[in-house]
């Protein structure tokens, strides 16, 4: 079933044409991920498709009811069903006092709770921990309508999407498959473009050589010998002129062939960034950071109880745990060098915080990143160009940057400091996928000690070789990649998560029993009865594990 059709869409921001779409159709079985650079028009596109805003030119037809999960706005409905609240672990009533993760869950619950045939979602994993993201994946998989999702979480797009729409320079291009398959297709496209360009260059060079060689032949044609008679000389001259004429004709024909060669633009190849350790910054300590008998609480809320950990020299460690478990607290304890934390002598820590306080908003990007940096300005420009700060954009003042641009500028400034350890607290927030992958690649090449807090599963799995988990007020270290860690824990039940699910199921049973005592239609009674036995069986099964 055709749900959305639009044509001749144009949208301007000032004088800039941000969207120029000839035609787009969305069907009931479509599960679409939208990707593109920050500012490319992703949110603008779904706002137009959902008829929350109008294009400057063109038309949109929307058939059916649409749900919308906004990144920044409150949900349209401020209350949700107890069933959906239970399934997403959230209250039934919206509150501005909710945490960021709770607000994201509520927005998703409100959109999923309706009877819409299509769901638009703008960064639906924002502020969620890994467990929350996985719950959201399950709910989205269960959704029976069409999905149109903007997300920088590549694992999320892989699990949910069967089609990717790429926005570039205002135009859209549709790729069948999930995000990983889209990347494969982009790689093949890039190789094909490079091959066609190389073929063009080689053919042009060959034809130019033909012209050069032919012109040399023209020059080599001699006049008649001195002892040759007049009649013979005339014949010789005529032959030479004819040969020259033929060669000149050949030159012109080859030149025309060059003119008619299909022009191929040189592909843009980004140079890789290799962050070499400065000789003065090398550390030889085995342990860079040591935590012993760590205790921390806020009021009655105990965060750490006699916890311990070590960060070893040269390791790349992911710090993970549920929202509120103490990840940012532990990072701040390290940065503040609290008594229970011992930092190796000579350690110079570069810290990326979520508030990006490292930047001076009154200065330009280039002035920020080169301030107190031991690296050359040319290297700084190379890194900034890799992060898509090109040309005069490096002179842009920080207070004029978008959230994503500020993240990239902060990242560049930290990398260009004289440091030998890097701590990153949620560095992927506000980033488009392309910028995220550039930072990911740079960190893979980074040969210093790294500690990173992130809920982006693919990001940390691509970078780290250790996983540090905050669980039950303790800190556990696993010497493995994130994928290996998830494989380990998948083989044993997480009792804390099970206990939480038991509480939710018990609450749901109470709600069902309450409804069964009311006068309801026969169909509603039968549905509740089925849910009661299903929930009861699941509850018994989980209680047997604990």
Helix-strand layout with pairing:
Blueprint: E1 2-13, E2 16-27, E3 31-36, H1 42-49, E4 57-62, E5 66-69, H2 82-88, H3 100-113, E6 118-122, H4 130-142, E7 146-150, H5 154-160, E8 163-168, E9 171-176, H6 179-220, H7 230-259, E10 287-298, E11 301-312, E12 316-320, H8 327-335, E13 341-343, E14 349-352, H9 365-370, H10 377-386, H11 403-415, E15 421-425, H12 433-445, E16 449-453, H13 457-463, E17 466-471, E18 474-478, H14 482-490, H15 495-516, H16 522-545
Parallel strand pairs: 3-7, 3-8, 5-6, 6-7, 12-16, 12-17, 14-15, 15-16
Antiparallel strand pairs: 1-2, 1-4, 8-9, 10-11, 10-13, 17-18
Helix pairs in contact: 2-15, 3-4, 6-7, 15-16
Descriptive notes:
- It contains 16 helices and 18 strands.
- It is of the alpha/beta class.
- It has four domains: 2-177, Rossmann fold (3-Layer(aba) Sandwich), CATH 3.40.50.300; 187-259; 279-489, 3-Layer(aba) Sandwich (Rossmann fold); 495-545.
- Strands 5-6-7-3-8-9 form a six-stranded mixed β-sheet, with helices on both faces. Strands 14-15-16-12-17-18 form a six-stranded mixed β-sheet, with helices on both faces.
- A hairpin with a 2-residue loop joins strand 1 (2-13) and strand 2 (16-27).
- The chain is globular.
- The model has no long low-confidence stretch (mean pLDDT 85).
Describe the structure concisely for a colleague.
This protein is an alpha/beta fold and 546 residues long. Helices cover 43% and strands 22% of the residues. It has four domains: 2-177, P-loop containing nucleotide triphosphate hydrolases (Rossmann fold); 187-259; 279-489, Rossmann fold, CATH 3.40.50.300; 495-545.
């Amino acid at each position: 079933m055709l749900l959305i059709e639009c044509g001749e869409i144009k949208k301007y921001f000032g004088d800039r044409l941000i969207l120029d779409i000839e035609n787009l159709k969305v069907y009931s079985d479509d599960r679409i991920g939208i990707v593109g650079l920050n500012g490319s028009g992703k949110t603008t596109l779904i706002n137009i498709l959902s008829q929350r805003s109008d294009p400057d030119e063109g038309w949109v037809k929307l058939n059916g009811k649409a749900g919308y999960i906004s990144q920044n706005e409150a949900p349209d409905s401020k209350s949700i069903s107890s069933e959906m609240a239970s399934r997403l672990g959230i209250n039934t009533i919206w509150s501005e006092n909710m945490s960021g993760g709770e607000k994201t869950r509520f927005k998703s619950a409100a959109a999923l709770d309706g009877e819409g045939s299509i769901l638009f979602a703008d960064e639906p994993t924002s502020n969620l921990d890994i467990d929350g993201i996985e719950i959201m994946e399950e709910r989205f998989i269960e959704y029976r309508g069409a999905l149109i999702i903007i997300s920088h979480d590549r694992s999320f797009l892989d699990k949910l999407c069967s089609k990717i729409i790429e926005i570039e320079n205002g135009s859209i291009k549709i790729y069948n498959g999930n995000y990983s398959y889209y990347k494969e297709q982009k790689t093949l496209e890039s190789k094909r473009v490079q091959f066609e360009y190389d073929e063009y260059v080689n053919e042009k060079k060959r034809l130019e050589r033909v012209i050069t060689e032919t012109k040399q032949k023209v020059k080599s044609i001699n006049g008649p010998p001195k002892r040759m008679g007049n009649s013979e000389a005339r014949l010789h001259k005529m032959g030479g002129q004819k040969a020259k004429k033929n060669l000149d004709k050949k030159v012109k024909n080859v030149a025309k062939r060059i003119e008619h060669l299909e022009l191929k633009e040189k592909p843009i190849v980004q140079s890789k960034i290799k962050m070499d350790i400065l000789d003065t910054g090398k550390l030889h300590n085995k342990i860079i950071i040591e935590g012993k008998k760590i205790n921390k609480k806020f009021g009655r809320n105990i965060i750490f109880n006699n916890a311990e950990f070590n960060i070893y020299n040269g390791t790349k460690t992911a710090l993970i745990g549920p929202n509120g478990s103490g990840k940012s607290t532990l990072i701040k304890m390290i940065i503040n060098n609290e008594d229970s934390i011992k930092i190796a002598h000579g350690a110079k820590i570069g810290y990326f915080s979520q508030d990006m306080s490292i930047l001076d908003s009154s200065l330009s990007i280039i002035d920020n990143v080169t301030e107190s940096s031991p690296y050359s300005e040319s290297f700084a420009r190379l890194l900034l160009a890799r992060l898509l700060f090109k040309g005069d954009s490096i002179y842009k003042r920080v207070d004029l940057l978008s959230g994503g641009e500020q993240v990239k500028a902060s990242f560049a400034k930290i990398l260009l400091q004289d440091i030998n350890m890097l701590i990153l607290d949620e560095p992927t927030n506000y980033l488009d996928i392309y910028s995220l992958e550039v930072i990911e690649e740079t960190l893979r090449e980074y040969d210093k000690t790294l500690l990173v807090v992130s809920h982006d599963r693919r990001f940390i799995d691509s970078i780290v070789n250790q996983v540090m988990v905050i669980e039950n007020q303790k800190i556990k270290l696993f010497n493995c990649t994130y994928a290996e860690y998830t494989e380990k824990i998948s083989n044993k039940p997480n009792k804390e998560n099970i206990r939480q699910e038991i509480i939710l199921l018990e609450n749901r049973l109470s709600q069902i029993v309450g409804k069964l005592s009311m006068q309801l239609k026969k169909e509603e009674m039968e549905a509740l009865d089925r849910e009661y036995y299903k929930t009861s069986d699941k509850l018994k099964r989980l209680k047997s594990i604990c």
